[in-house]
What we know:
This protein is 27% helix and 24% strand. By secondary structure, it is of the alpha/beta class. The strands form two sheets. The protein has a five-stranded parallel beta sheet with strand order 2-1-3-4-10. Strands 5, 6, 7, 8 and 9 form a five-stranded antiparallel beta sheet that branches.
Amino acid sequence: MAKRVFFSFHYQDVIDFRANVVRNHWVTKESRDIAGFFDASLWESAKKDSPLSVKRLINSGLERTSTTCVLIGTNTWARPWVRYEIVASFRRENRMLGVHINSIAGKDQRTKALGVNPFEYLGVRFFNSGLTATLYEVVGSKWIEYTEYGPSATYQTGGVGCEHCGKFYKFSDLYNIFDWGRGDGYNNFASWVENA
C-alpha cells in the first residue's frame, strides 16, 4: 500500500528539476500503490513568512505522513528548514530515508558530485532512562543543542529500547541513504520507502 511521504529538499533542486524527477516519477507508474507513495511535501518558496508560521506550515505538512524522504542535493545539508523538517520528522517518529539526487541530470543535462549527507549534521543523545533525549546539530565544527524545534533541545521520548539508553547517535547512524541514479530509484523507490 502506498505511504504518505513528506519530501524535504532544497528549493534550488526544484529549480534544477532534480527534486521533481523523484517527486513526480509516480506519474508514469500504473498506480500510486506501485509508485509506493503520495507526495505530502511543501515548496520551500512558500517558506518566506515568519519563522513561527514556517514551522506551523512544516508541522501541518507532516500531519498524516508516515515517512520523510530527504532529497540530497549539493547544499541540502546546510538548509535550516531542511534540518527543521528532519528534526520534526524524528520527533513525530516518521520513518526516514535520504536519496542522493545529484546523479540525476539537471535542466542543464549535467549531473553533479553527490551532496553531503544532512543526517551527518543532526544527532540525538538518549538519557539512561530512555524516557528523555536531547537533540543536537553541528554548527561550524561543534555539536550544539538543537533548539529550533522548541524551547528546549531535551524532550520526553515516550520510551526507547534499552539498547539506546545513554547513547549518542548521529542521524546518519539511524537512517539509510540511497542514490537515485546508481540505485535505480525509478524502480526501487517504493521498496526504499517500504523498508525505511
